[in-house]
Write a structure and sequence with these properties.
The chain has a 5-stranded antiparallel beta sheet with strand order 4-3-2-1-5. The chain has a two-stranded parallel ribbon with strand order 6-7. A hairpin with a 4-residue loop joins strand 3 and strand 4 (46-50). With 143 residues, it is α+β, with helices and mostly antiparallel strands. The chain is built from 5 helices and 7 strands. The chain has helices spanning 13-22, 68-81, 88-96, 109-119, 133-140; strands at residues 2-7, 28-33, 36-41, 46-50, 59-64, 85-86, 106-107.
Amino acid sequence: MIKLAFYKGRGDVFDRLIRLWTRSQYSHVEIIVDGIWYSSSPRDGRVRAKTIRPKRGHWDFRLIPLFERDKASMLRFLESQIGKKYDWTGIFLSQIVPLNVQDPRRWFCSEICSAALKAGGIKLEKSSQWYSPARLYKEMRWV
């Protein structure tokens, strides 16, 4: 089973800045494949996979229907990105200053999640670095 998990808990200063900038309740997103949470987080400093016990009321979830072969493609992509650093430059140059800049060696949360969705065959309208957690949430309402 594939899910997107959108974080709306209180969080830290960085979470509050993202919410303020995007005018959204969401500051972070994770993609969950068979109970393992994948994302790139400034707290971890890189792309990682881990088990998270979500606090009630801190997350909203979206189920993503995929065929097994598409899920396998998504998982291969995610596993190949583990350890890549957090993309501070991409956050600044694609989210704050809309220059659509992306470093293929680094990821921020919504960027890696949207790229993983694309690897799994989900059609998204924009480039991965365009998506904030809020934009990805809006796009995935229709899936």
